[in-house]
Amino acid sequence: MKIRFNFRPLPLRLWGLLALAGLAATACDDKFDPPYELTGDGGFSTIGAAPAGLQAKYAPGEVVNLLVGFNAADRVREFTVFQVVGRTDSAVVATLPPTNPVFDTRAGITAQPIPYRVPTNLANQTAVRVDVTTTFENGAMRRQRFTYNVAAAPTLRLGTTASPTTITTFRNNLAATAQTTGDIIGYNLVLNEGGIGAIPTTPSTATLFKNVDSLTTFYRIGTGAPVRAGVVRNPSTGVANARTVDVTVPSAAQGQTVTFLFTSYAGPYAVTATAAPITIAAPTSLGRVRTGRVTAGPNAPQDSASYDLRLGANVLNSAAATTKDLFASGISGATVSLAAANTTTFYRIPVATAAAGYYNTASANAVGTLLYQNATGLAAPGPVAAGDLFAVRVRGAEPMLLRVVGVKPSTTGSTARVLFEYRAI
Fold first, then answer.
1. What is the side-by-side order of every strand in the sheet holding 313-315?
2. What is the annotated signal peptide range for this record (predicted)?
3. DSSP letters along 151-220, please?
4. How far apart are CA 246 and CA 170, in angstroms?
5. Mapping DSSP to helix (H, G, I), strand (E, B) and coil, where does residue 133 land?
6. H or E stretch at 112
7. What gap in Å lies between CA 190 and CA 156, rounded to an integer?
8. pTM (predicted TM-score)
9. Could you say which DSSP state residue 77 is in?
10. Which residues contact 182 (CB under 8 A, 6 or more apart)?
11. Going by C-beta distance under 8 Å and a sequence separation of 6 or more, which residues neighbour residue 191?
12. Shortest CA distance to 312 belongs to which of 423, 155, 209?
């Protein structure tokens, strides 16, 4: 994990507008004095910061680009920056005359950029007050102030809170070596581990972190340049956040290695966690085709009521429920319903998709991804008819495709039958 500064150029026209952020004060200590003070007859002043206004938390060594707004006709003599750490006396940290101020014609205000650097030796959670005094040529003064707490720059690592080695979840339930283009991989990440986002009422030794502005995903094919793939906005107010980010294997990665990178941004700071590269393979075919049947009814054979999709055979009623991936669960007139006695789940393929030849062309990767994307739609097959097509997740693991070939309903107590065929790895 590597932390770096993320400097961004600021358009000049934004300086004045941002200075209009007003009489800014952030409430990290209610006992600090009011944020604005007048002395003598003079002009006005405002305070803000670029690029996103004044913040409640800054990291040690961070440079805050202050913007002190004023009316140029009021003839400013100098600006003085004071700093108060905790309850110590204030100390002057900078004094400067108006130097290269910028003017925004739309806002009608002149703004003086003043860089303020957070002391590097302050402990986490320390409260700091900054006063900026504008002194005019006639001796009048205007004072603006803001307060902040010292917070840590962001941290980011792969893994879960409990396990730094539990990193990936392959959503198609295939092996790492079987991933292909279009597959979805979930990466576990921990942001600001063990951190808090605000000063607690009760004193705490937990680390106060800066807010995370965004968590951005990149991918790199081979040794190429990283490509931005997605972003999560405002994933953390500073508090610890364990989350899983899904990524899609890019189409251009076929036959090559792809590396996913995750970058957490907090103001001028950025930290990146890089996952291990994955070699992208050809799609895994559903090359094994089997046929089967299940029966139901008062006179149905006991050895054909349930079916084990892994074994490719019927199992007795007395067999363990964990082996019963499919059985005839009900008969109602001309309708026969199917279900599973274990954790095997089914997704009914839309008719139009089935009609387009999905059963013969879909790979295990495609079926596995389809099951993940339709996780809320997984259920027992229910009533079935010839031609119905199902994506199957067998016992929470491998994907299959099952097509109903024929249905013989039960009439006047006769045995009902459902014939099917299915494709497996």
1. 313-315, 306-308, 326-332, 335-339, 382-384
2. 1-27
3. -BPP-EEES-SS-TT--EEETT---GGG--TT-EEEEEEEESTTEESS--SS---SEEBPPEEEEEEEEE
4. 10
5. strand
6. strand 109-117
7. 6
8. 0.85
9. E
10. 248, 249, 251, 365, 366, 369
11. 154, 155, 156, 212, 215, 235, 236, 240, 241, 242, 243, 264
12. 423
Provide the token pair at 283: 């799609």
Assess contact for 235 and 215: CB atoms under 8 A.
yes
Strand order in the sheet with 109-117: 45-50, 63-70, 109-117, 102-104
Q: Characterize the bridge pairing of strands 57-58 and 141-150.
A: parallel
pLDDT tens track of the chain, all 425 residues? 555 555 444 443 444 444 344 334 333 444 445 555 555 566 788 999 988 899 999 999 999 999 999 998 889 999 999 999 988 888 999 999 999 899 877 778 899 999 999 999 999 999 999 999 999 999 999 999 999 999 999 999 999 999 999 999 999 999 999 999 999 999 999 999 999 999 999 889 999 999 999 999 999 999 999 999 999 999 999 999 999 999 999 999 999 999 999 999 999 999 999 999 999 999 999 999 999 999 987 777 878 889 999 999 999 988 999 999 999 988 887 889 999 999 999 999 999 999 999 999 999 999 999 999 999 999 999 999 999 999 999 999 999 999 999 999 877 778 889 999 999 99
CA–CA gap between residue 363 and residue 284 (Å, rounded): 6
Look-up of token digits 């700091």 = 128
CA distance 197 to 195: 7
- Distance between CA atoms of residues 408 and 419, nearest Å: 8
The residue to which tokens 């009521």 are assigned: 305
Compute how many other C-beta atoms are within 10 angstroms of the C-beta atom of residue 318.
7
Instruction: List CB contacts of 424: < 8 A, sequence separation 6 or more.
Output: 286, 288, 290, 309, 398, 400
Return the amino acid letter for 73: A
> Hey, what are 346's tokens?
């089914």
Quickly list H helices, 323-410: 351-355, 358-361, 364-373
Q: Which helix (H) or strand (E) holds 420?
A: strand 416-424
